[in-house]
Each structure stands twice: as structure tokens, then as C-alpha cells.
Design a protein that fits this description.
The structure is a single chain. With 351 residues, this protein is α+β, with helices and mostly antiparallel strands. It folds into 4 domains: 30 residues, no CATH class; 96 residues; 104 residues; 100 residues, no CATH class. It has a 6-stranded mixed β-sheet, with helices on one face. The structure holds zinc ion (2 copies).
Length: 351
């Protein structure tokens, strides 16, 4: 084996690291450096971390401490296979002791270093939380329904969809994705939203899940950095007809079985299927709901007709046999009294 002399210490060595022997090399080599004290700014409400002029949600206080240490840790640029282990230990909610171990390799030699630091946390309100507590909003979503009032279930469903959309947008780093306020009104619900973009996403998600449509009307409310700021009112209209509604449309009596996007149903007078777009339903009126049904005794079945005892007049009347009828003569079946006569309801909803 060739041996050379270290130009720095004069010792004989089998291998030079760079220009000096191993001992001389590691005497001056620092694998990693870390300040003894670090400062991290966190939101006292949502735990967002303030880093490089921006607030971001990266998880709990321990995640923030780890990130703060990672950002401050300097590792020698020539090393390979770097492994960093960060162990934070909470002393108080505002102070963590952190032990760091760094392993790497340089010119075929393994190197290891241990460091300790202290992370001091200051807590204040982030951009999002201070906007929310100040009542800031850009978009108002007015949830209403066409020719009726939204049900409590529908209002709850819209709020749940809004929260879900906001949650996903926040996860992607949108600091204006929040709900400032929600007002429960007789005619529906008003949602106050941090940005118009978020409002638009919420309305699209509601249409996707519940049907209906929305329109936007902007109004100028101020300027920021020379740019006009608009507030947009989103008029959200839930569909007029819901599953379970019985409607009168072009001389047909239709029980609605499915309503978002397309209106599907069964014609109660002959059992045929009904299918139309909400836009095609001009002139349709709701005459009853499936829940208004009463029971009547089935007297006899004859081909496509059945005879039932009218529960009010006690007269036997002949009506069309519903699409799905499992009952036998003598059984009770569900019928609906309407201004257009008596109709038997299907035992099961198709589709
Ligand atoms: Zn040397
Ligand atoms: Zn916050």
C-alpha cells in the first residue's frame, strides 16, 4: 500500500481526506451546526406556524418544533446518506428542549454528531384566525330552495358540505378558506365565507351532491393595494322537488324517487317511469308527499287494476295496480288521496 505524509501534521497516512490525513480532517470538520436557542411563532388558536413570512398549518406544537429545528439545522454540504433524528421534549407549552443526532458519511468514513437546542414558542393569532374573529368575509352564500323552504336536514347538509370543502382547501394552504358565520333564517341559511373562490367551490359541491343551481352577483366593497375588492352574493337554489314528493305535471301524477340533476319518478296512474331535467318541469306542482299516504284495504286484484276500500268514503274503487305490489287481497296497502283521486304507492322505490 502506498503511504503518504500529511502536509499538515507530518504523520504518515494510508489515505488523504481531501488534502490532509484523517485526524487533521476531522479536527476541523463540523458535520452539523445548530443555534443554541431558536424561536418559533405559532397561532394560539389553530396551531399554524409562521415561517418565511407565511402562516401554514403543519400540525401540532411538536410538528412546529421539529420543523423549526429542521429549518435552522445546517448540515455540511459534502456529506452523503444523511440521517437526522430530532427528539423534542416539552418543558412548558412555550419551551422545548430538543436533542438532535446526525449521521452521515464523508469520503467513505461514517460521521456522527449530537446537538442540543431550545425552542421558544410565541403564540399569537394567525392571519386566518384574526380575520375570522374580526368577522371578515368576501362571499355570502344564500341557501334557498325553488318555490319552497329548505328543510332542516337540507340546511344541515349544506353546512356539512361547506365545512368539508373549507377543510380540504385549508389543507391545501388556502388561508381564506373559512366560514365566518352562518345564519339560520326562516327562508334558508346564509353562510359568510372568507373568499369568493371558496364560496364558489362550496356552491359547486352543493350542486354536485344535492342538485339545484346557483348564480353570482358581485358588488364592489373597497380597494386593496389599488385593486378593486368585490363581495359576491351566491344565490343557491336547491331543487324544487325532492324524493317522496308527488307532483302533478302535464296531466300525470308522478312520485319523485330521485332528484339531484335529473328528476326520476314513477307515474302513479300507470306505473310508467318518468325522467326529466329540472328545467323541463315548468308548470309542475307538488300535490302531496309520500309521507301523506294512508292505509287502505286491498279488496281484489284484477290484471293491471286493483280494488281498494276508500279509507274515507268506504266505497270500493278501482285504481291502477302499482309497479311493485307484494300484497294480496285482504292486506292493507299505502294509498295517497289527492285532488286528482286515489293512488296506490309502490311498495318499494325502484332504483
Ligand atoms: Zn495530519
Ligand atoms: Zn390560527
Amino acid at each position: 500500500m502506498n503511504s503518504t505524509v500529511c502536509p499538515k501534521c507530518g504523520k504518515e497516512t494510508g489515505k488523504l481526506l481531501g488534502t490532509v490525513c484523517k485526524d487533521c480532517f476531522f479536527e476541523q470538520f463540523h458535520l452539523a451546526e445548530l443555534p443554541l436557542v431558536l424561536h418559533a411563532k405559532m397561532c394560539s388558536k389553530c396551531n399554524a406556524y409562521f415561517n418565511r413570512g407565511k402562516w401554514t398549518n403543519i400540525g401540532n406544537a411538536e410538528n412546529v418544533v421539529n420543523r423549526c429545528v429542521e429549518n435552522a439545522l445546517f448540515v455540511h454540504k459534502d456529506v452523503e446518506d444523511v440521517e437526522i433524528c430530532i427528539e423534542p421534549r416539552q418543558l412548558t407549552p412555550y419551551m422545548y428542549r430538543v436533542h438532535v443526532e446526525v449521521d452521515a458519511g464523508i469520503m467513505g468514513e461514517p460521521v456522527h454528531q449530537e446537538l442540543d437546542t431550545e425552542v421558544r414558542i410565541t403564540r399569537e393569532s394567525c392571519d386566518m384566525c384574526s380575520r375570522m374573529s374580526g368577522g371578515y368575509f368576501e362571499g355570502i352564500i344564500q341557501v334557498r330552495a325553488t318555490n319552497r323552504v329548505p328543510t332542516e336536514d337540507e340546511k344541515g347538509q349544506c353546512i356539512a358540505i361547506a365545512k368539508n370543502v373549507v377543510h380540504h382547501m385549508q389543507k391545501k394552504g388556502d388561508r381564506l378558506a373559512f366560514i365566518t358565520d352562518s345564519l339560520d333564517l326562516k327562508e334558508g341559511t346564509d353562510l359568510y365565507i372568507g373568499s369568493n373562490n371558496t364560496s364558489n367551490h362550496i356552491c359547486r359541491a352543493i350542486v354536485e351532491e344535492m342538485g339545484g343551481s346557483f348564480s353570482e352577483s358581485p358588488s364592489l366593497f373597497g380597494q386593496k393595494d389599488g385593486k378593486d375588492l368585490y363581495r359576491i352574493t351566491f344565490s343557491m337554489r336547491l331543487p324544487e322537488f325532492m324524493p317522496g314528493d308527488v307532483i302533478h305535471f302535464k296531466d300525470r301524477i308522478i312520485e319523485v324517487t330521485n332528484s339531484p340533476r335529473r328528476i326520476n319518478g314513477i307515474d302513479l296512474s300507470n306505473g310508467s317511469r318518468f325522467n326529466a331535467l329540472p328545467d323541463e318541469m315548468k308548470g309542475a306542482t307538488r300535490i302531496a308527499q309520500r309521507s301523506d299516504a294512508v292505509t287502505a284495504v286491498l279488496v281484489a286484484i284484477e290484471d293491471d287494476d286493483i280494488m281498494v276500500l276508500d279509507p274515507v268514503t268506504y266505497k270500493t274503487i278501482t285504481i291502477k295496480k302499482p309497479l311493485f305490489l307484494a300484497a294480496q287481497a285482504g292486506d292493507e296497502i299505502a294509498v295517497l288521496r289527492t285532488e286528482y283521486g286515489l293512488f296506490a304507492l309502490s311498495g318499494a322505490n325502484p332504483e
